[in-house]
Amino acid sequence: MKEIAERLKALSDPTRLRVLNLLEHGELCVCDLMAVLELPQPKVSRHMAFLKRTEWVTSRRCGKWIYYSLAAPENPVQGSVLSALRQAMPQVPQATEDHEQLCRHLKTKNTGSCG
């Protein structure tokens, strides 16, 4: 029960919900998230650490960069919550704005790694 509560607590922050929505579009690095969320690196990294600890995201290192993606649901509760978020997010103006901002950012970003 405590584990489920901790995982759901991770979703109580609007920024972390925005991150999950952005990761629906595929793997992103912290610099991509910073560009869309307009937050400094330490703050984004803190959110990512919490989402990783509560198993909403996974990460992989490529050189000095860390790339994040949505974790595969480990249990029915997590899968149901992600499904509900996928249905709800298109109705949220901030989620739509974030998606548009991400598309603009990715078009102007140098191909390859961040930096």
TrEMBL record:
Residues 1-96 form the HTH arsR-type domain. The keyword Magnesium does not apply. The keyword DNA-binding applies. Keywords: DNA-binding, Transcription, Transcription regulation. Pfam families: HTH_5 (PF01022). GO terms for molecular function: DNA binding; DNA-binding transcription factor activity. NCBIfam families: HTH_metalloreg. PANTHER family: ARSENICAL RESISTANCE OPERON REPRESSOR (PTHR33154:SF18), TRANSCRIPTIONAL REGULATOR, ARSR FAMILY (PTHR33154). This is Transcriptional regulator, ArsR family. It comes from Pseudodesulfovibrio profundus.
